[in-house]
Design brief:
By secondary structure, the chain is an alpha+beta fold. It is built from 3 helices and 7 strands, in the order H-E-E-E-E-H-E-E-H-E. Strand 5 and strand 6 form a beta hairpin. Bound molecules: zinc ion. Zinc ion binds next to helix 2 and helix 3.
């Protein structure tokens, strides 16, 4: 799972390589997401990997593991969950676990 998470993180198109995986209550993998920066939007907006998962798997996601890597994916870097994601996680009852 961690290898897949790192591969996902490297696919991020923004400044930071962040990958996240969503798990259900039984620990089953629901899906993976990388951080996404939408350059086509009039106001450049970015979507955290963990927030994308909470939107897609709303109601079934129990916990999310998040990791940040360097561009090559060879190293894990420290990451903190942003305020918007933390607020959303609290609202939906999702536990976010950061790796690295
Ligand atoms: Zn966030």
């Amino acid at each position: 799972m961690i290898d897949r998470l790192i591969k996902t993180a490297v696919q991020s198109n923004g400044k930071y390589c962040v990958g996240a995986v969503a798990l259900d209550r039984k620990g089953g993998v629901l899906g993976y997401a990388s951080a996404l920066v939408d350059d086509r939007a009039r106001r450049r907006r970015s979507l955290c990997a963990e927030r994308r998962l909470m939107i897609v798997f709303r109601g079934v996601v129990d916990r999310i593991y998040v990791c940040r890597t360097n561009r090559s994916g060879s190293r894990l870097l420290p990451i903190t969950v942003c305020e918007r994601c933390a607020a959303m996680a609290a609202k939906y009852g999702v536990t976010i676990v950061t790796l690295g």
